[in-house]
Write a structure and sequence with these properties.
- There is one protein chain.
- With about 160 residues, this protein is mainly α.
- Helices cover about 65% and strands about 10% of the residues.
- Strand 2 (about 95-100) and strand 3 form a beta hairpin.
- The longest helix has 25 residues, at about 110-135.
- It is globular.
- The model has no long low-confidence stretch (mean pLDDT about 95).
- This is Transcriptional regulatory protein.
Length: about 160
């Protein structure tokens, strides 16, 4: 199906198939949602925030966690998470402190501005969810969310 007579791969067919697989669809949706969230936060005055910073913000323990824990949750290196934390610290959203039990650990806590950012983020997401619901319909959006919740739950139990 994807190979021609001489064994060459039909790149058009391959691209079509790739565009239909779950991973590609989830990645594309995540890119669009991520851009929409950042645009919404910029409109609320959070101009220092970039799309990569949402990796830290969506994975950190809001009660305070370490860079290492946040990196593990996000599936990126401690060094990459440390750079994101430094950016958000410089922008006034995070405090980075020495760990209580381990001087090598760096604990992340939201500043008052960081808490406002998180509240704004929830409001932006609520607005976006209403927009997405209008795009695909209430029942389809609800079914999408329910299916993704079930899939994530089952995958986490593996």
């Amino acid at each position: 199906m994807m190979q021609g007579n001489e064994g060459a791969v039909d790149l058009v067919a391959l691209e079509t198939e790739r565009g239909r697989n779950l991973r590609q669809l989830l990645l594309a949706a995540a890119r669009h949602v991520g851009r929409d969230v950042v645009d919404g936060l910029h409109a609320r005055g959070h101009d220092a925030l970039g799309s990569t910073h949402t990796t830290l913000l969506s994975n950190m323990d809001l009660a305070g966690g370490t860079i290492t824990e946040t990196a593990e949750r996000a599936g990126i290196t401690k060094q990459a998470m440390g750079r994101l934390a430094s950016d958000l610290h410089a922008a006034g959203y995070l405090e980075i402190s020495v760990g209580e039990h381990d001087a090598r650990a760096r604990t992340l806590t939201l500043t008052a501005e960081g808490q406002r950012l998180m509240l704004d983020s929830l409001e932006v997401m609520n607005t976006l969810e209403r927009q997405y619901t209008n795009m695909i319909g209430k029942e389809r959006f609800a079914a999408l969310v329910e299916a993704l919740q079930a899939l994530v739950s089952d995958l986490q139990e593996r």
